[in-house]
Specification:
The longest helix is centred in the N-terminal third of the chain and has 12 residues. By secondary structure, the protein is an alpha/beta fold. It holds the Pfam family Glyoxalase.
Length: 126
């Protein structure tokens, strides 16, 4: 099997709000959109993020009314402190301040207007 790209689809109430959040704070660009749908990506090919409006009829019936919850989208970065300072200066809501785990993971989290959690991670020697 060869995987040529990856995407994560998240069901939200306000597609434009999540789309704008990713574009503003993480450099994603909208590649496709329609009513209740937006697909965003980055030039570096990190991962595509797709937002689908909750209740959209193209979703399987058992998923239509679900809201993305309990999902954390993680981005590994080179300079966690610089990213934290940048996002804080941009007014992004820091919902978990920077911390270091015993296994060598430094991280912090921000949350978009629909409650989607983004974790920024930097690996260090434990």
């Amino acid at each position: 099997m060869r995987i040529s790209s990856s995407a994560v689809s998240l069901t939200v109430d306000d597609v434009p709000a999540s789309s704008k959040f990713l574009a503003t704070h993480f450099g994603f660009a909208e590649r496709m959109s329609a009513d209740g749908f937006a697909s965003l990506g980055r030039e570096d090919g990190a991962v595509d993020i797709v937002f689908l409006r909750r209740g959209l009829e193209v979703l399987p019936a058992e998923l239509r009314d679900r809201h993305a919850s309990g999902t954390i989208v993680a981005f590994v970065v080179d300079d966690l402190d610089a990213e934290h300072d940048r996002l804080r200066a941009e007014g992004a809501p820091i919902t978990l301040p920077p911390r270091e785990e015993p296994w060598g993971e430094r991280l912090f989290m921000v949350t978009d207007p629909n409650g989607i959690v983004y974790e920024l991670v930097e690996w260090v020697t434990p």
